[in-house]
Amino acid sequence: MRKPPTLLSLTIDIALLNLSHISDLSFLPDHVLLELFLRTLRAGKLTEKILKLFVATGKDEILSLISELNIQLILTPVLPTINIRDDEVDIVIGALHLDLTSFMEDWRAVFSRFHLIIVQDPDLKGDLKIPGGFSFDVYMKSDIESVVGSSSSSVVFSGYSCRYFGYLVSHKKYIISIDDDCIPAKDDKGELIDAVAQHITNLMTPATPFFFNTLYDPFRKGTDFVRGYPFSLRSGVQCGLSCGLWLNLADYDAPTQALKPGQRNSRFVDAVLTVPARAMLPVSGINIGFDRELVGPAMVPAFRLAKEGKFRWETVEDIWSGMCVKVICDHLGYGVKSGLPYVWRNERGNAVESLKKEWEGVKLMEEVVPFFQSMRLSQGAVTAEDCVIEMAAAVKERLEPLDPVFARASEAMVEWVKLWKVVTSRLSNSAA
Amino acid sequence: MASVSPTPVLKDELDIVIPTIRNLDFLEMWRPFFQPYHLIIVQDGDPSKTIKVPDGFDYELYNRNDINRILGPKASCISFKDSACRCFGYMVSKKKYIFTIDDDCFVAKDPSGKEINALEQHIKNLLSPSTPFFFNTLYDPYQEGADFVRGYPFSLREGVPTAVSHGLWLNIPDYDAPTQLVKPLERNTRYVDAIMTVPKGTLFPMCGMNLAFNRELIGPAMYFGLMGDGQPIGRYDDMWAGWCTKVICDHLGLGVKTGLPYIWHSKASNPFVNLKKEYKGIYWQEELIPFFQSVALPKDCATVQKCYLELSKQVKAKLGKVDDYFNKLADAMVTWIEAWDELNPSSASAEVANGPKK
Fold this sequence. Notes:
The complex is a heterodimer of chains A (432) and B (358). With 432 residues, chain A is an alpha/beta fold. Helix content of chain A is 39%, strand content 13%. Chain A is built from 15 helices and 9 strands. Chain A has helices at residues 7-17, 30-43, 48-56, 60-68, 101-111, 141-148, 162-169, 195-204, 254-259, 292-295, 317-332, 351-356, 360-374, 384-398, 404-431, and strands at residues 89-95, 115-120, 135-139, 174-178, 182-184, 239-248, 272-274, 287-291, 335-345. In chain A, strands 1, 2, 3, 4, 5, 6, 7, 8 and 9 form a 9-stranded mixed sheet that branches. In chain A, β1 (89-95), α5 and β2 form a beta-alpha-beta unit. In chain A, α1 (7-17) crosses α2 (30-43) and α14 (384-398) packs antiparallel against α15. The radius of gyration of chain A is 26 Å and the shape is elongated. Chain B is an alpha/beta fold and 358 residues long. Helices cover 34% and strands 15% of the residues of chain B. Chain B has 11 helices and 9 strands. Chain B has helices spanning 27-34, 64-71, 87-92, 118-127, 177-182, 215-218, 237-252, 271-294, 304-319, 325-343, 345-348; strands at 14-20, 38-43, 58-62, 97-101, 105-107, 162-171, 195-197, 210-214, 255-265. The two termini of chain B are 37 Å apart. The relative contact order of chain B is 0.14. The interface between A and B is large, with 57 and 59 residues.
């Protein structure tokens, strides 16, 4: 005859069923508590909340069992409810330093889900140090040359521009790119920000470039379109680019940093907003995400200062490609967002030293901005590639007379589109 | 840390305009911030009712009889039974700056728990330049602790004068009736610590609940339209003023800021009542937005009044066919400017000195 269940085991069964409603276990006798714990484990019901309940009883037997079994509370980053397929994302890192260990460790919780493309600055000699536990591909000078050809090219992948090679060879839909001197920041509640998840959320939710919403991103939880926002514009458009921000060392130019050496950005602005159509903005490459399928070819590594350096404030390559992307997004009806996520940007370098170099970037920007503001693309330009070619022609016609650097930029833009077409078709052929 | 100069109080240069139909009890909470200033109370509804103003405030109060007496036949442009009547207060004020607030808006607290002096923040916004020609990703570059980012053209870093400061609301957000019906319990709890300039060429929904502007720069454009009693539409007064104002600011090279300060909006109006008022606005808006987005004002319109009169002509020409209401509105816009110039003779001929027109 089968032994009937004991009263104790029946009680534990019921307790197990109602575990989520129990808020205190300290009154239970030790042997009952232990039995409950083991049954909870066996039933697979040991969640973070329930583990905390058991730990709160303070009973030695339970605590020693927990440490023997090596049960740990793992803090997982809060992920958005949007379903991101990890295989739709590449994280592209331009390595301007050899030792990426601390950078990768700091980002491990966020990066480890995804595939990484690490591109070594071709001017950087030596071997990269990358910790284990990541899925990544490294591209070096030799790889770049084999794709691009070592002769020519007007497209130069050195310094901060090395990351564009990563954009080129990726075949994922979304690319997130963060400078190698940035670490995860904390939000105003002290929680670590998952910058990648936020960029993906930005890219996967609609943008609203045609009318400004005063409560910022209307698709965010807890907010909406305000009174007066036209209904026909409420479905929004696809987002092509997501521009994040920086706490601590903000992305200032050298003169500003030299003037205010102590200034640190401590203001956490809890907003994402769409930069309106036809409004230009300075896109910083330090912390961005973009939809490669929509705007990939528009992220052009074309504008190199003659004395471009290895500090962000000695470059404007991202400013140029950002304005190209904005004009193209405006034309094709895609959105560009700015705001969250923040990263924490560490300090290095001396802005005053950079000032001693001839500051041509500043002068050139003055010419460049009116050009982009008035740039209009033809109706026939319906892809990002078409748009880049048209823009390259306009750059050659209108800006080349001002400075030879623009002639090189125009050539680079054309070359880039060619490269893009070749590499993309090669990838899709091999994937087929 | 660099020392920050205190914000000027401007107590003799700023009027607070408050439309009311109920009572002014809310002023008690604002007393520490508002008491130095002069109030212009515009009493809507039944003029025989007495609205009690809390002691200790310096104010002038206008009811419908006063409006009719002062404007005579031109009083037809001032709405009745709608907070749009507040624009009478702008017209009758003699000060340089106006701050307007609704009587269900209270003092909010920032995330640290400190009470927000909304008026002080609006003054800061109005006294510092705007940057409508290029978007700064760190928002207001003139705020403490912020600056222009790398790539921002130096030639645009001086900015232009700020004409409008548009504040926001915690608690009950400014939603339209359909959204209120779908989300009756949603509260705005997110404090976004930013002020930014709405870029040139971009329209936005301007809410009149928590608004300040430079009357000398843009006053005549702040006409809140024909709403309420006898009109087919309500709750679009501030929207209309906002679209006209933005178009004119863009034309004259003036800036419009939005963001801080927050106030605490306590009263959720009845969404069914709102729906009836807004109903026509919701689909007229679809015609209005393209109209405003494509408005072109001729170069010789160098004053706000000239711009506004030109705008009224275009409203009649292009929107008259949407509904006859817009013909009436266009006429009211002209009446408004005539009344404005009558009550403000010195500004009628003054050309507005402002930044370069782009």
